[in-house]
Write a structure and sequence with these properties.
By secondary structure, this protein is α/β, with parallel strands linked by helices. The protein is about 50% helix and about 10% strand. Strand 2 and strand 3 form a beta hairpin.
Length: about 425
C-alpha cells in the first residue's frame, strides 16, 4: 500500500513544539494549495491540540514532511528529533488507532472522531481526496463505530475538557463557593462549561472576544457574561480560569494579572489550547498555578482502568478492518480486467443483435434483448467470482482472461 503518515504528536513532542507545527486556517489552505500544485491529491490533515498528522496515498513521505515544515512554524530539525514517519500497513493502523481513540492522550477520547471527520470533510471540499482514500475512510469510521458498539471502550469515556475539569476539581478540592472564569465559548468551551456545571460549579463567568457567542451559552445555562476588556478585573477575583479560545497567540499575558500583585490570592489557570492561549511566562508568577495540555491525563481514574481492559478487543477490530481494506484494495487489481471483459462481451452481444434484429419479429425484440443481456451478465458474474477469488495473485488469471478474450490495454493495476 503506497500510504504514508507523518506528523508530530503528544507522545514525543511537548506543547511548545506541537504549537509550532499546528496549522492555522490560513496555513492549512496554503498547505493544500501547495500540495495540489505538487501533484499530491490524496491527503488528510488532522490538526488538534495534541497532534498535527498528515496521511497520504501515492506520496513521498519526505515531500509531505517538507510541506508541513514549509507551512508551519516548525523546522526540519524539530521534526527529525520529535516527528514520525510510517508507511503501508503501519500508517493505516496508526490512522485507525487515532480515530478510535487508542492513540489519544485521554484513552477513548470522544472528540477525536469528530476531528477526524472534520479533517475528511475539509479535504473532500477541496477535491484532494480520491477513491482509495474515500474507501479507507469507510473502514476507519466503521472501526470507530464497532469499537463503541462491540466493546466497552466508551464506558465512562472522557475528553480532554473533562480531564481538565477533573484536574481542576482535585486542585481546588471542590467547586463549591469557587469563582470560575471560562475564557472562550467555542466547541471546547461549551463542553468544558457542561462539565463544570455537572461537577457542581455554580459561580461561572463566561468571557469571549465575541460577546454575542458568550451570551448564547450564558442564556443556555443562566450564566453571567463579562466583556473582554474586563479580563484583568475578573481574573483578579477568580479561583480557577480555564482558557480555550482557539486564538493563534496568547490572549492572557502577565499584564492581565497586575491586580494579583502583592496579594495572597491564588488562581489555578488551565490552558487547553494549542497554540497556547496563556503566555508561558506566567508559569513563574507567584500567584498562579499554570497548567497546560501536557499535564492532563486520566490514567489514575477508575473509568480509565475499565476502558483499558477493552484495548485488546479494539485492537482486534482494527486488525479485522485493516484486513477488509487490504482485501478490497487487492480486488481493485482485477477491476480493469472485469470492466474490459464486460465491454467485450456486451460489444459481441450488440453486434450479433444488430445482425439478427431484422430476422426476428419486432414484437420479440425486447424479449430477445433481455434474454441475451441476461446470458452475458451470468457469464460476467461467474468470471467476476473467479477473478476475485484469485485477487491475492491476480497476474496469471487476468493475463489468461485478457489473452482468451483478446482484451486491449492492460491496466497498471493488473500488472
Amino acid at each position: 500500500m503506497a500510504f504514508c503518515a507523518v506528523g508530530i504528536n503528544h507522545w514525543k513532542a511537548d506543547v511548545a513544539l506541537r504549537e509550532r507545527f499546528s496549522l492555522s486556517e490560513v496555513q492549512k489552505k496554503a498547505f493544500f494549495e501547495d500540495a495540489r500544485n505538487r501533484g499530491l491529491l490524496n491527503l488528510l490533515v488532522i490538526s488538534t491540540c495534541n497532534r498535527t498528522e498528515l496521511f497520504a496515498f501515492d506520496a513521498d513521505p519526505g515531500l509531505v514532511v517538507e510541506l508541513l515544515v514549509a507551512h508551519s512554524a516548525g523546522t526540519r530539525d524539530d521534526f527529525d528529533r520529535s516527528g514520525f514517519v510510517c508507511r503501508g500497513e503501519q500508517a493505516i493502523r496508526h490512522l485507525l488507532r487515532v480515530a478510535v481513540g487508542l492513540d489519544a492522550q485521554i484513552l477513548g477520547d470522544l472528540q477525536i472522531i469528530k476531528q477526524v471527520k472534520q479533517a475528511y470533510e475539509y479535504t473532500c471540499e477541496r477535491g484532494v481526496v480520491h477513491a482509495v482514500m474515500h474507501r479507507l475512510m469507510q473502514f476507519v469510521l466503521r472501526a470507530h463505530k464497532r469499537s463503541r458498539t462491540e466493546t466497552g471502550l466508551a464506558s465512562g469515556a472522557a475528553t480532554t475538557a473533562y480531564a481538565a475539569v477533573q484536574f481542576a476539581r482535585k486542585e481546588l478540592k471542590s467547586f463549591r463557593n469557587k469563582s470560575i472564569l471560562l475564557v472562550g465559548t467555542g466547541k471546547i468551551g461549551k463542553i468544558t462549561c457542561k462539565n463544570l456545571l455537572s461537577l457542581g460549579a455554580c459561580n461561572v463567568t463566561l468571557l469571549n472576544r465575541s460577546r454575542g457567542r458568550a451570551e448564547l451559552l450564558g442564556e443556555r445555562f443562566a450564566l453571567p457574561v463579562a466583556d473582554f476588556d474586563r479580563l484583568p478585573e475578573v481574573l483578579a477575583g477568580a479561583d480557577l480560569a480555564i482558557v480555550a479560545t482557539g486564538a493563534d497567540r496568547p490572549v492572557i499575558g502577565r499584564e492581565h494579572l497586575a491586580r494579583l500583585e502583592k496579594t495572597d490570592h491564588r488562581i489555578v489557570m488551565l490552558d487547553l489550547s494549542v497554540p497556547r492561549n496563556v503566555d508561558p511566562e506566567i508559569e513563574d508568577h507567584p500567584n498562579v498555578k499554570l497548567v497546560n495540555m501536557d499535564h492532563l491525563n486520566d490514567t489514575t481514574d477508575e473509568a480509565y482502568r475499565r476502558r483499558e481492559k477493552n484495548v485488546p478487543l479494539v485492537e482486534a477490530i482494527i486488525d479485522e478492518e485493516i484486513a477488509n481494506f487490504q482485501t478490497w484494495l487487492s480486488e481493485q487489481k482485477v477491476v480493469p480486467t472485469i470492466r474490459a471483459l464486460g465491454e467485450k462481451l456486451h460489444g459481441i452481444r450488440n453486434l450479433e443483435m444488430d445482425k439478427f434484429r431484422n430476422r426476428i419479429p419486432e414484437t420479440a425484440h425486447a424479449e430477445v434483448d433481455h434474454l441475451t443481456r441476461r446470458i452475458v451478465n451470468k457469464i460476467m458474474a461467474h468470471s467476476i467470482d473467479h477473478l476475485k477469488e484469485h485477487h491475492d495473485d491476480p497476474g496469471e488469471v487476468t493475463k489468461l482472461v485478457r489473452s482468451m478474450f483478446k482484451l486491449e490495454s492492460e491496466s497498471n493495476l493488473d500488472r
